[in-house]
Specification:
about 45% helix, Multidrug-efflux Transporter Regulator, Chain: A, Domain 2, two-stranded antiparallel ribbon, alpha+beta, three-stranded antiparallel β-sheet
Length: about 80
Amino acid sequence: MDIDYVDTATAARMLGVSKPTMRRWLAYGHIPALRTLGGYYRIPAVTVMALAQPSRLQRLGHVARMVTVDEHGEAVQAESR
């Protein structure tokens, strides 16, 4: 069975979030994804479609605000709340 994957920009567009937000979610492990040899994320399309439910996006958005990423999309610091 072939699985279709989308890149970070496509996933962000499908979910209506910015690319930096998508990178934070990926870097912090909130969305399962594969990393290519070049370090790019590939997200299963079915995962993106499942996450498109508003209640799931709201929970991810709350968690993503607590994470800071560097210019490579890596989590570097969690804000204390």
